[in-house]
Amino acid sequence: MNYLAHAALARATQESLVGNLLGDFCKGVALSSLPESMLAGLANHRAVDRFTDTHPLVQQAKMAFSPARRRFAGVALDMLFDHYLIRHWQRFHLSPFDVAKAQLYQHLAHAEPLMPLPMRFTMQKVRQQDWLNAYQHLPGLARALDNVASRIRFENAFTGIIDEITPNYLAFEQLFLVFYPALQQHVMTLGLEQESEANLMLMPHL
Question: According to DSSP H, which parts of 55-193 are helical?
Fold first, then answer.
């Protein structure tokens, strides 16, 4: 899953939010120095990734990509799933997405002191360039995917992967709508971030 989903699957604390987004920024971080609540968030992030990467529906979706691009299918689906989460936000959360996005950006800004520098710089870009707004629409998602492709340091066929998403868009959407509630339930069942019953809904302020 990508940034929005990891944030939405966090608890309603700064430490949980940072921990749940930390998975892509662990290099060089002394994990033993982090507070227990942040480590629990990181464990939740990793559990979400394991569940996603091994889920039969996600494996099925990856097979829809051509062999030349299949190695990048996981990255593309992570970002596409954020697109679908935005599109269907109020199936899963009470607040309208624009309200939730503004709150998330505010929480990210306040939580910056807890972030390692590479994560802080990336999250500043997420907020200042409004990445989640770009993810709402396929042209913006296509640009975001191509930006990822441009950062890969070896020759690849990732660029233009939106061309393989578009004909499968509705099928991927229906798959997401089955998969995401299962992921939410998995996180709830694992209970890696134990809190009171009042905070049991994931990121309730979103």
Answer: 56-62, 73-87, 89-92, 97-110, 117-128, 131-135, 138-150, 162-165, 169-190
Give the tokens for residue 40: 């629990």
The b/e string for 113-150 (b: 16+ C-beta within 10 A; e otherwise) is: ebbbeebbebbeebbeeebbebbbeeebbbebbeebbe
- Rounded to two decimals, the pTM is 0.91
Domain extent listing, the chain: 3-199
- pLDDT one-digit tens code per residue, 157-203: 889 999 999 999 999 999 999 999 999 999 999 999 975 333 333 44
Rounded CA-CA distance 113/123 in Å is: 12
Residue 27, C-beta contacts closer than 8 angstroms, at least 6 positions apart: 118
Nearest to 69, CA basis, from 180, 170, 168, 183: 168
